[in-house]
Amino acid sequence: MNGRKKAVILLSGGLDSSTALAVARSEDYGIYAMSFRYGQRHSVEIESARRIATAMAVEKHLFVDFDLRTIGGSALTSELEVPKQRTVDEIDGGVPVTYVPARNTIFLSFALAWAEVLGAQDIFLGVNALDYSGYPDCRPEYIEAFERMANLATRAGVEGYMRLKIHTPLIAMTKCEIIKTGLQLGVDYSLTHSCYDPGADGLACGLCDSCLLRLKGFAEAGAPDPLSYATR
Questions:
Q1: Over its length of 232 residues, how does the chain's per-residue pLDDT go in tens digits?
Q2: Which residues pair with 165 in a beta bridge?
Q3: Assigned domain for 226 exists
């Protein structure tokens, strides 16, 4: 690593987390990627995360397993139907059923534990407060609160030898701006996956909120989306 600082990156396999990883890499961090098999309704994103981590030459890629299907409460962790063909106004109209209760809190807690063990004071997360589908755990005030908690809840923070920082480089960007940033940093978006409800063949549906926001972002960026869609 040649003395580079270490950073833990939460890597879902999607467009945003891959761009956040690229931002961290551009800032010369040694990258430690963390992905989760949490009982989500498909495994396509796991394979995407694996491909991205390999393509971006991370130092280590850690997979963490737990099952949020035992709790449910989301279309991504139960048999609830994924919303399709919603308008942008409808997508922005409140917390959707694809919200997974406490997901980012759980993910960040694992990242916090690994960061403390690694001696990494930086955690990167690809959350976005503009094109964010209404998720409460993607807002700046949530990230700020978690960072305060992290420095109260860890030995590193209490003993004062390391102050943990949560970086959200995409939080004030539109999807268009995120895509443009990623393209400038060399992200291969053909390796990413965004769909909430892909088919058995792994093909993105093209109709869920995540697909629609992604397609809108690429259109506004004036760049072709390299993914194939069942419906476009």
A1: 456 899 999 999 999 999 999 999 999 999 999 999 999 988 899 999 999 999 999 999 999 999 999 999 999 999 899 988 887 777 766 788 888 999 999 999 999 999 999 999 999 999 988 765 678 888 999 999 999 999 998 888 888 888 999 999 999 999 999 999 999 999 999 999 999 999 988 899 999 999 999 999 999 999 999 999 998 7
A2: 122
A3: no
In the chain, which residue ranges form alpha helices assigned H by DSSP?
A: 15-26, 44-55, 88-91, 103-118, 140-153, 155-159, 175-184, 209-221
Residue 23 β-bridge partners: none
- Number of structural domains, the chain? 1
The pTM score is 0.93
Instruction: Tell me the CATH number at 201.
Output: 3.40.50.620
Residue 229 lies in a domain: no
Is residue 230 in a domain? no
- Cα 8 to Cα 34: distance, rounded to the nearest angstrom: 7
Q: Has residue 89 been placed in a domain?
A: yes
The boundaries of the domain holding residue 154 are 6-221
The torsion region of residue 94 among left (phi > 0), alpha (psi -120 to 50) and beta comes to: left
